[in-house]
Amino acid sequence: MTLRLQPAKGLVSAFALAGLALLPACAQAQMGGQSERFSIAVIPDTQNYVDYTHQTEEGFPFNARTLFLDQMDYIAANAQSNGGDIAFAISLGDVWQHASQGIDEAHLAMGQSAIANPLLDAHLAPSPEGVAREMATAHEGYSRLDGVMPFAVVPGNHDYDGNWSDSRFPPAEDYMNPGDNAFPFGQLHYGGLQNFASVFGEDSDFFRDQDWYLGAYNDGANSATVFEAGGYRFLHIGLEMAPEDDVLVWAQSMVDAYPGLPTIVSIHDHLNTSGERQAISAVDFDAVHPEHNNAEEVWRKFLRPNAQIFLVLSGHQHGQSRRVDDNQAGFAVHQMLSDYQDRAQVMKDIAPDYSAPAAIGDGWMRLMTFDFSSDIPVLTVETYSTHYEAMADELDTYASWYRDNEQPGMSDEAFIAEEMFEIDLSDFRERFAPLAEQN
Description:
This protein is an alpha/beta fold. The chain contains 15 helices and 17 strands. It has a single domain, classed as Purple Acid Phosphatase, chain A, domain 2 (4-Layer Sandwich), CATH 3.60.21.
C-alpha cells in the first residue's frame, strides 16, 4: 500500500503550510525515490453530504457537509505538492442535491411538459435556496484543492438547473407492482447547466488560466485536462451525462489534439452495478430525448474507436462494478463504477434514534495507485473512508454494513474484492510512450 500522510482533522492547513520540514524522513524519501508511483483520488457522488437538509441548521443531527470537507482535506493533504502521492483528483458528478427550477424554457420549446411525481416531489423538488447553499459548500470543498493539484469535475443529473417528471412517462400507481409500465418511477429529466458552470465552468476561478486545463465545451460541462505523473503525461476528458453528438465531436477533437497520451474518461453514468452499460429506469436521458447518447452509444461512437483511452470512470448507480472490453485496436479499456451515496452507517452510529434515517455516504471514495516501477505496470484500486480512516478491507464489519444493499448474494470475500483489487496494465507500455521519449 502506498504511504499516505493522514493529518488529524482540522490540522490540514497547518500541515500544508509547514511544508517538507515536518514530513517524516520516510515520506521525504518516498517523494524523491518513488516517482514511478502516484495516485488519483476518485470522488463519487457527494450530493447527500452537501444537501442543505442534511445540516444542523435544518434540524439534522449533524452536519453531513463535514464528511465532504474531510474528503477534500484528505486529498489536499496527501497531494504530491504536500508530500503525498495524489497527483490528480476526479469528481464523478452529483456534486450537490437540488435543482433550482422545474422544467426549463428550452425543453418547453421542444414540446415537453412536466407532471406531478410523488417520488420527485417528496425528495427532490427544486429549491433555489437549497442549491445556492449547496453550491457554496461545493465551492468551499474544491477550493481546498485549488492551487494544490490539477482536478476535474463532471456534472451529474443532480447538478442540472432544472428537474421534472416527463409527462410522457407517468409513474406506476404502485412501483412495486408496475404491470406493463417500463418506467415505474416515471422518467425524470433535467435541463440547463448554468449553476454548474458558475462553480466549475471554464471561466471559474478554479480553471481560468490554468495551464493544465486544456479546453471545455458547453461552458465547462465537458472539459479536458492534462497532468504529469509516474513518468507519463496523461489526458483526462470529462463528459456531461449522456452527451449528444456535438459533445462527442468536441471530445474527439481533444483526443486528436493530444495523440498518444494515455487517456482517462470520466462520465457520471456509464456502468450499472452488474457491470452493464445501462441506465436506470427512472433517469434515462436517451429515452426522454433520443438525441442523447446512452452509455452503449458513447462506447460505440467515442470510447471504443480511440486506442489511447484506457480507463473509464463513472458514478450515479449505487454500488460498484467493473468490466474490461477491447477497443477497436485490440487494447484493454478498463471501466469502473463507484458510488457510495446510499451508505448510512454513519447515520446509525451518530443518531440511531433519529426519526428519519438518511443515507449520507460514510466518507468512502476511491484511491487508484499506479506503479510503473516494474515491466508490467500495476493499477491498485482501494476504497477508503475519511470518516472511518480505514480501507474497506481493514473493517471487519464492511461487508455486513453494505453488501446486502449493493451486491446481494455476494460473499464477503467477493464483495471486498470489488473494492480492493489490482489490475495488470499489461499493454500499457506497448500503447504509450513515457514523457522522456515524447517530442
